[in-house]
Design goal:
The chain is of the alpha/beta class. It is built from 13 helices and 12 strands.
């Protein structure tokens, strides 16, 4: 555990002590599948790398500390982490999911887990009355994204938690967009935090991973059993890369947030843009909630093109610095058309994303260069 309550210090030191064998300041990559026993039933804390690995342990401890939690678990991807949480449920259990949840999450819940007797309802997580009305006697889990992907809608975490805990319902918050630099859901009462560590936590577009953080020992014990039993674990090198990325998380999030605000302000004033959704803008419908709940506003924003789908496609295909790619949260700026890329799996459902919307992940390049790039890409549309 870290000796500091400041996240700038925690990202550098939490879970990472000098190697006892050599004094190496960086956690070694324990690239081994198995560990030698001293005697029958006696080992040094590790027996097989699917169950546990020292590099993964360092990452899991770091992740727990950053989220203000007691227990961290690392997974091979964000979807592996999500899948493991759903395995806490049993046939007949009901889950509430947000009205614009990530397309991959929706696909897993609806096309896979419904086959095993779980049920899911879609609800506007910004509307407490709608959440209360959608609760059933069988509801066991509320799945929040805040801000949501890609509509940038916020959920009031403490208010949802209060509602859920009255009926012993677990609240899981996907904190991928915000990161613990911007909000700590466990400290706001949530039971489970999930991340795609692929995104901001590793931050360099070079590794895929996931994480779960909890405070409850019973939940942790069950999740650990599932992590080992289902085996969707990251390799040591992936853990090491994520740890290395985490060391600059606090610095990067400051830069992402400052750049995103500058880009959002520029786009909000552009005649080719009909609407900008960014929690840091006073025009965001939940700006006051964002100010209350978030320390930073993050690097993600959504823009609606006044010229519809054709204009959105034009923007996506005419930037030079902003790469047209899926994923987000890296040092490089990216943009995409969710309707046909990350959220294609929800076409034809109530979660369908309009093709005039472009999701932008603002990187850490100079804000002036990013704005100039958008200016030239939008020039033909104004």
């Amino acid at each position: 555990m870290s000796h500091s309550s400041h996240i700038e210090t925690q990202v550098v030191h939490a879970g990472q002590t000098p190697d006892p064998a050599t004094g190496a300041i960086v956690t070694p990559i324990y690239q081994t599948s198995t560990f030698v026993f001293d005697a029958l039933g006696v080992h040094k804390g590790y027996d097989y790398s699917r169950t546990a690995n020292p590099t993964r342990t360092a990452l899991e401890r770091c992740l727990a500390t950053l989220e203000g939690g007691d227990y961290g678990l690392a997974f091979a991807s964000g979807m592996a982490a999500t899948d493991t949480i759903i395995r806490l449920l049993k046939p007949g259990d009901h889950t509430l999911i947000g009205a614009d949840v990530y397309g991959g999450t929706y696909r897993l819940f609806k096309s896979e887990w419904e086959r095993f007797g779980l049920s899911f309802s879609v609800v506007d997580m910004a509307d407490l009355a709608s959440i209360a009305a959608a609760l059933q006697p069988e509801t066991r889990l509320i799945w929040l994204e805040t801000p949501t992907n890609p509509m940038m809608t916020l959920a009031d975490i403490p208010a949802v938690v209060e509602l859920a805990h009255r009926q012993n319902i677990l609240v899981c918050v996907d904190n991928t967009f915000a990161t613990p630099c911007a909000q700590r859901p466990l400290e706001l009462g949530a039971d489970i935090v999930v991340h795609s560590t692929t995104k901001y936590l590793s931050g360099h577009n070079d590794v895929v991973g996931g994480a779960v953080v909890v405070n409850d020992a019973g939940l942790y014990e069950r999740l650990t059993f599932l992590q080992n039993g289902a085996g969707a674990v990251p390799g040591p090198f992936d853990c090491w890369l994520t740890l290395r990325g985490l060391k600059t998380l606090a610095l990067r999030m400051q830069a992402h947030s400052a750049n995103a605000l500058a880009v959002a302000r520029y786009l909000e004033g552009h005649p080719a843009i009909a609407r900008v959704l960014y929690p840091g803008l006073p025009s965001h419908p939940q700006h006051e909630l964002a100010r209350r709940q978030m320390a930073l506003f993050g690097g993600m924003l959504l823009v609606e093109l006044a010229g519809g789908e054709a204009a959105a496609r034009h923007l996506c295909e005419h930037t030079r610095l902003f790469a047209l790619a899926e994923s987000l949260g890296s040092v490089e700026s990216l943009l995409e058309l969710p309707a046909i890329m990350t959220h294609a799996s929800v076409v034809g459902t109530s979660l369908e994303i309009a093709p005039s919307l472009v999701r932008i992940s603002v990187g850490i390049e100079h804000a002036d260069d990013l704005i100039a790039d958008l200016e030239q890409a939008l020039a033909g549309l104004a």
